[in-house]
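Lab notebook, bench 4. Still working through the backlog of constructs that have no structural model yet. Next entry is a single chain of 145 residues. Request: give me the structure tokens for it.
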Amino acid sequence: MPQPPRPIDRTRSLEQLEQCRWPDPPEGATAMVKNVHDLRRSPVGALQPHELARLIGQDVGLPWLLPLAVEILRDTAPRQAAGGWYDDDLLYAVVTRRPEVWANAPGLAAELKEAVMTLADLSRYVKQEVDDFLSTLTRPSSRPG
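Model written out:
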């Protein structure tokens, strides 16, 4: 995953950041496909957590969207720990990305690890995915040395 410049220009869309305009969805495309195409044209700073979750869950725009998602998760973790609401959909989308994504973004993975370590009372299915994410961070690299 290429690393975008930080800070990310939140006024720009994924199409602008990636400098790649997708063609319109094909005739008869599903609502999901149409929605992803539409969201790619929205300023990334205007995307709501559920929209980020949808794009990230489809592996769209990860270099730009994962930092924004981790920021949201990091900023909301203290409220969750204090008994507030936490966005399981966004958390699930983020922690279920392939281990290679996190291996290529170790600083971001460390930020996410720090945030999820403070969480409690997660649903069973999200807790399992968080535990799997954390275990991938502690496994030794399988790359030849």
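Notes after review: Helices lie at 14-18, 31-39, 49-57, 62-81, 88-95, 99-103, 106-116, 124-138. The CA atoms of residues 114 and 135 lie 14 Å apart. Flag for follow-up if needed.
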